[in-house]
Amino acid sequence: MAVIAVFNQKGGVGKTTTCLNVTAALNLAQRNPIALDLDPQGHLTLASGTPAVVADAGMASFFKHKIPLSNLLQETPGGWQIIPASLELAKIDALFGSDPKAATLLRQGLREDLSLTGAPIMIDCCPMLGVLTLNALLATDRVLIPVSADYLSLQGVHRLDSALNALENKLKRKFERRIVVTRFDSRRKMAFEIYEKLRVRYGALLCKTRIGETVALAASPMHGKDVFEFAPHSPGAADYRALVQELWESGFFS
């Protein structure tokens, strides 16, 4: 069972878009993925076309009421499964912040309830390093980091890399990482400069596939669809197919 946390502390970098469309591409490849929405904003839930959940449903029920994860799965219109989020997740830090064992709840839940499925599990993380994100990171050893092709995102990924290094030292374990450049505009010289700076610093950790800035990727969440449902022949769909193929061939999903 591969568990992949999609994480970046900076907003607007395509984190949810990447989680949504990587999950959808895995589904098209018949890998039967499961997505977990760990962001209280619930953007992955909305973008996937999943009906709104009541306050204590979805992932909040797992943390607050110990409801088994398999009981919380919902099927999206795209045909893959999700455990949705609600604003109630925002209370998890306050409820469990003083409990050192709280960060391992998701890891235990996955092992006890979903490990036998063998399905790849994609986690859309909250954009800050709190109890929810620590649960995601402790449940996996793989992190996919979307970075938009701009200067501030470049600085943000350096800080995130340092934070992950510090967490590795504390936990005495490694996170296998991949960085994917998103919102790449080939008309802008700066986009190529940002990509080259990332390549020089991170080498093989940087995906060769770049996700272009396209209308289909921006518009599909508004319709509650992944890009393959919304515009299957668009450049955005082609980019995410290529990304999943690259990650699969590198062993990132195994």
TrEMBL record:
Please give the CDD domains that the UniProt record associates with this protein.
Answer: ParAB_family (cd02042)
Top-level taxon of the source organism: Bacteria
Which residues belong to any copy of the AAA domain? 1-175
By its UniProt entry, which InterPro entries does this protein fall under?
Answer: AAA_dom, DNA_Partitioning_ATPase, P-loop_NTPase
Q: Name one Pfam family in it.
A: AAA_31
Q: What is this protein called?
A: Sporulation initiation inhibitor protein Soj
